[in-house]
Amino acid sequence: MTQTTVIPGHIAIVMDGNGRWAKKRFLPRLAGHKQGVESLRRCVRLCIERGVRVLTVFAFSSENWNRPEDEVSGLMSLLAGALAREVPGLHAEGVQLHFVGDRMGLSDKVQDGFLQAQAHTSGNERLVLNVCFNYGGRADIVQAAARVAGQGQAITEHSLNAAMGMAHVPDPDLLIRTGGEFRISNFLLWQAAYSELYFSPVLWPDFDAATLDAAIGDFSRRERRFGQTSEQVIRSSAQKVTV
Ligand code: IPE
Ligand code: IPE
Ligand code: MG
Question: Which PANTHER family does the record associate with it (predicted)?
Fold first, then answer.
């Protein structure tokens, strides 16, 4: 019997390892980040080809401001350049762009770039690409709680979820971290409650079809139980097949 591959509807990625990729080549860290942009472009295309509907990437955390000043300013100009260069191609491929995270602290140019890119691609339906920039999972939960409370609403899972930066998409099915570290680093704390986790030693600039397919293959072989027993899961999937 051939095993069919289950494609995750929503993949989230902590794109880690740019600095080490550059260091291995005796290059400045920013060269690694530049290569990281190339890798993201390739990853978007691969996700489209495989039928993934939502891709969410961690591009800059609220803690990354603590890096050396020249790296932070380099990353900001890389972002501004990528916004100008990449959006037409993404639009042509049917990508709907969203920028998730705190806009405060970002330059007017970047903020305008975010708004324009979102407006320009809002009608696209092939792939939703969420770029988490100046994003922190805890900060997102806090701002959602403050918003719900400010509106005088009761704090429930539903109301909090609706006030969160990722309210427009379902939770990630598969969360990948490249770069060999086994941690979440304040990414999607709320939304990853039942995501399948996959850690790869591959450095982000080297992320390719083989790495993505290995992650999807691994995901395919997992049994997602959401608190139920294995027997319940098998029974309900058998029922789904027979109806
Ligand atoms: C991830 O790569 C990109 C950002 C955090 C902006 P790193 O820059 O963290 O790369 P390493 O972990 O130092 O190799
Ligand atoms: C997480 O990577 C953030 C991004 C990939 C944008 P970091 O490199 O900042 O994470 P830590 O510091 O190793 O936990
Ligand atoms: Mg890192």
Answer: DEHYDRODOLICHYL DIPHOSPHATE SYNTHASE 2 (PTHR10291:SF0), DEHYDRODOLICHYL DIPHOSPHATE SYNTHASE FAMILY MEMBER (PTHR10291)
Residue 242's pLDDT is 59
The residues lining ligand 1, judged by C-beta closer than 6 Å to any ligand atom, are: 15-20, 60, 64, 75, 179
Q: Which CATH superfamily is domain 10-242 in?
A: Decaprenyl diphosphate synthase-like (3.40.1180.10)
35: left (phi over 0), alpha (psi -120 to 50) or beta: alpha
- Identity of the amino acid at 163: A
pLDDT at residue 1, as a whole number: 47
- pLDDT at res. 222: 97
Check whether 19 is labelled as a binding-site residue: yes
DSSP 164: S
The predicted model scores a pTM of 0.97
Active site residue 64: yes
Return the structure tokens found at 243.
Answer: 């109806």
Mean pLDDT over all residues of the chain?
A: 96
Q: Is 61 annotated as a binding residue?
A: yes
DSSP state, 8?
Answer: P
Count other C-beta atoms under 10 Å from residue 234's C-beta.
12
Q: Nearest bound ligand to CA 19? A: 1
Q: Which 8-state DSSP code applies to residue 124? A: -
